[in-house]
Specification:
This protein is an alpha/beta fold. It has 21 helices and 18 strands. InterPro entries: AB_hydrolase_fold (IPR029058), CarbesteraseB (IPR002018), Carboxylesterase_B_CS (IPR019819), Type-B_Carboxylest/Lipase (IPR050309).
């Protein structure tokens, strides 16, 4: 602005940051290209030469038509008022006269003019921009970045704590993994709780402080194969092996159920594996104890009347179900995934799981089952008939009234076990004999109307199972040590005599030795095919899309694939001693742990939809059928003489 006639134009202070941002907004109207004429500045009739445009001198605000007027008037703050006399129409006309190139130059110059005052703040703007970008990156990484494993701390170099629904437990660090032993999953089934379904813990019945889960507790009372009796009635506990106690990246869970029979021999060869296997395979192992024998399966009228719902028997099955419920609720605290639980059953454990899989009470407790060398004969006797058999053959010897459940619950455990009939303890591992046609076999599993509501074969045939199932066995599952040691040496003559003196000797001797060798391994195959292999294959083919495998790799002094060959390799209870055994170990472990992790039964080899069989030796081989089963099925030996737990 002019400071009077011919006066100097004062220079204002440089604008601040906010004014520098606002300044370009003054020129919201398009500028005109500079005129060739000198603009006239009206100030009292005089004129002054044009001066460079500045913040104080606005002479060139519109320097294209010389019509800019600057008023002497000042506002309240002492600032001069700028009046723009140019009309919008004139500006539009001049814009129309410009060429496209001139317009581009003008637009670029206008933009640069507006941004020029911001240049001195470019470092501040750049710093703020970088800070905002880094902040966004940090937030995104924190939300979507990799989750870190936060493991429970190790106390005193060897102890690790975990939490359960009933309180804290303390495990031990062993071989790079954490082992918890003897964690209760239900209240002690003693006193009035004997012969009742397992009772979960309530808050008032839980333990105080931290439970030292360092040592395994006793197994449940049982009768072993050699006749010895051992166990404890307070036995409903479980053991756990986990690579770490953490909550991130939960791992697949394997729950082990093993027993030689439903009367004893638990857990058999399904003891917990070496702790390092949990770390190597990235899985969590769980092994629960469960009631077996007379304390686990007695059906009696007195017990039925004193229970609600009114039923009895199958307490061992209910123990297994309760253990699986505990796993579902608590295994997340041990780095396990409750939605990825595989149950592995062996021998009588597989028989139990066969019944449980068919029960609707276990939906969502596990996702898949691997059943090894179980029984193919299932309960067909109603509860009432089983109760009567128990009364006639057992309870009368105890001197208890038929309806006196309190008397049964008061009796000493040893007395209860000592009075079990010998026929109830017998499991056949030999060639069929004539006496089997006259003896009534005792079936521990009963149709109790609660967990076993109908004959299991009917459930299997419908095929509407809620879990994936794999069934398998070994080629010589019934080649027991007792049978092997029953002769000093199994010569050809001894083998032929053994077959001739059995039921096979009536009309099948010649046909048998056309198919089998007259050797120890041949005899082991005959017994196993009749008792276990062919009955299980017969069962598997009643269930749509159920894979079936047979382990054929021999081992040990007897050179047969005995009943434990598959599970010993899976759980590394044995070590390979030859290159051939090492290849077998690798093959079956790959198949099993692939099933555990992915739910797939080695699709490269198995075609369950076509009822093919996977023979697992040094290498898995697919086969359309198992040799010689047709002989036993056609002659009514299978499933008639199948092994019964």
């Amino acid at each position: 602005s002019a400071e009077g006639e011919g006066g100097d134009i004062p220079i204002e202070k440089r604008p601040g940051f906010l004014h520098a941002i606002k300044l370009p907004l003054v020129s919201v109207l398009p500028r005109k290209l500079k005129s060739t004429k000198e603009p006239d500045v009206e100030e009292g009739g005089g004129s002054t030469p044009s001066k460079p445009a500045g913040l104080a001198s606005m002479e060139t605000l519109d320097d294209s038509n010389g019509s800019t007027k600057i008023s002497d008037d000042k506002n309240d703050e002492g600032l001069e008022t700028v009046k723009l006399d140019s009309s919008i129409e004139e500006k539009a006309a001049l814009d129309a006269e410009r060429s496209p190139d001139e317009k581009k130059i003008w637009d670029r110059n206008a933009l640069m003019a507006r941004l020029a005052p911001l240049k001195e703040f470019k470092y501040i703007i750049a710093g703020v921009s970088i800070f905002l970008i880094m902040l966004i990156i940090i937030v995104v990484v924190a939300i979507t970045g990799p989750r870190h494993m936060v493991a429970s701390p190790i106390i005193d170099g060897r102890f690790v704590w975990a939490v359960t629904s009933c309180g804290h437990v303390e495990g031990i660090l062993e071989d790079g993994a954490v082992v918890f032993r003897g964690i209760p999953y239900a209240r002690s089934p003693t006193g009035d709780r004997r012969w009742r379904k397992p009772e979960p813990f309530l808050l008032e019945t839980c333990w105080n402080n931290t439970l030292k889960a360092h040592n395994s507790t006793d197994t449940c009372w049982q009768v072993y194969g050699n006749g010895t009796i051992n166990g404890n009635e307070d036995c409903l506990t479980l053991d756990i092996i986990t690579p770490q106690v953490r909550y991130s990246n939960p791992l697949p869970v394997i729950v082990l159920f093993g027993a030689e029979s439903l009367t004893g021999g638990s857990p058999g060869n399904l003891e917990l594996p070496p702790p390092r296997l949990s770390r190597i395979r990235d899985v969590v192992f769980v092994r629960p104890n469960f009631r077996i024998g007379v304390l686990g399966y007695l059906a009696a009228k007195a017990l039925t009347n004193s229970s609600y719902p009114h039923t009895s028997g199958n307490y061992g099955l209910l123990d297994a179900v309760q253990a699986l419920r505990w796993v579902k609720e608590n295994i997340v605290h041990f780095a396990g995934d409750p939605k990825a639980v595989t149950v592995l059953g062996h021998r009588a454990g597989a028989t139990m799981l066969t019944a449980i899989v068919a029960s609707h009470k276990v939906e969502d407790l596990f996702t898949q089952a691997w059943l090894s060398s179980g029984s193919a004969i299932f309960p067909g006797v109603p509860l009432v008939e089983s109760e009567q058999q128990s009364q006639d053959q057992y309870i009368r010897k105890l001197n208890c009234n038929e309806r006196d459940d309190a008397c049964l619950r008061r009796l000493d455990v040893e007395e209860l076990i000592d009075n079990v009939p010998e026929s109830w303890l017998k499991v056949e591992h030999d060639l069929p004999q004539d006496v089997e046609n006259t003896e009534q076999k005792h079936q521990w599993l009963v149709q109790d109307g609660v967990i076993v509501k109908e004959h299991l074969s009917e459930v299997w045939k419908r095929g509407n199972l809620s879990v994936k199932v794999v069934i398998g066995t070994t080629a010589h599952a019934d080649a027991t040590k007792a049978l092997y040691n029953s002769r000093p040496e199994w010569t050809e003559e001894e083998v032929r005599a053994k077959v001739a003196n059995s039921m096979l000797g009536y009309n099948l001797t010649e046909e048998v030795f056309k198919r089998y060798n007259a050797t120890w391994s041949g005899l082991a195959s005959i017994v196993s095919d009749i008792r276990t292999v062919c009955p299980l294959l017969y069962l598997a083919r009643q269930i749509p899309s159920t894979p079936f495998y047979v382990v054929t790799e021999p081992r040990g002094k007897s050179r047969v694939a005995d009943v434990n060959t598959d599970v010993d390799a899976i759980l590394e209870h044995d070590v390979p001693r030859t290159p051939e055994q090492r290849r077998f170990f690798i093959a079956i472990q790959q198949i099993f742990y692939r099933f555990v992790s992915l739910g797939k039964f080695d699709h490269h080899h198995s075609d369950a939809s076509n009822n093919k069989i996977l023979l697992i030796g040094q290498d898995p081989l697919i086969h359309p059928d198992y040799p010689n089963c047709d002989l036993w099925i056609a002659n009514d030996y299978v499933p008639r003489y199948a092994r019964v737990d």
